[in-house]
Amino acid sequence: MKRGKNYLESAKLVDRSVLYTPREALDLAIQTAKAKFDETIEVHVRLGVDPRHADQQVRGAVVLPHGTGKTVKVLVFAKGEKAKEAEAAGADYVGAEELVDKIQKENWFDYDVVVATPDMMGVVGRLGKILGPKGLMPNPKSGTVTFDVAKAIAEIKAGKVEYRVDKTAIVHVPIGKKSFGTDKLLDNFHTLMEAIIKAKPAAAKGQYIKSVTVSSTMGPGIKINPAKTLE
């Protein structure tokens, strides 16, 4: 794979034989983010679980103390008073069956998170094959199926992120922007890792946190010592 000049320069700053502390790794992630835009800092955690088994799924959501630095558009499926509540809470789009039609017929995806009240899930369920593969399907575990739509919207806008183990047993989560600086990124990192550790399935055996890597959008991966993730 051919790499660009900036990537190759950044890679020289990282010793691939070293397992860094979280602070050292985030310092390096900032140094190696050489793009002209404000790069996102991402965390990739490989877990000792087998995602093929239902009792070893790891999924949830957590509000990062400093947010993600991204403006998030929220779509809410609700009716009546709950629709009014969603609009008052700052939802970008609110509706019911008419939004299902818009998504199905127009392939409409101008939103980042979908929230639904429980009574609307029968309607939203028709979108499973469209929203599911994009990770947009509302889910009670991530707090996006709820009657408390105002709280859900407030948390999402404040920087709530969803974490979910993929089929290769890795969790990928953005924790902020390069411009946040190390201290804020470290706070967000610790909050995320605490949530993932707390979500350990009872069926998971052996070492749970196998590896932790951070990187900027365009930068190289920087390995963190799994034993020091909360330091």
UniProtKB/TrEMBL annotation:
Gene3D superfamilies: 3.30.190.20, 3.40.50.790
Subunit: Part of the 50S ribosomal subunit.
Natural source organism: Thermobrachium celere DSM 8682
Function: Binds directly to 23S rRNA. The L1 stalk is quite mobile in the ribosome, and is involved in E site tRNA release.
GO MF annotations, alphabetized: rRNA binding; structural constituent of ribosome; tRNA binding
Chain's gene name: rplA
UniProt keywords, alphabetically: Repressor, Ribonucleoprotein, Ribosomal protein, RNA-binding, rRNA-binding, Translation regulation, tRNA-binding
Record-given protein name: Large ribosomal subunit protein uL1
GO CC, alphabetical: large ribosomal subunit
GO terms, biological process: regulation of translation; translation
Stored NCBIfam families: rplA_bact
Similarity annotation: Belongs to the universal ribosomal protein uL1 family.
Xref: InterPro entries: Ribosom_uL1_bac-type, Ribosomal_uL1, Ribosomal_uL1-like, Ribosomal_uL1/biogenesis, Ribosomal_uL1_3-a/b-sand, Ribosomal_uL1_CS
Top-rank taxon, per record: Bacteria
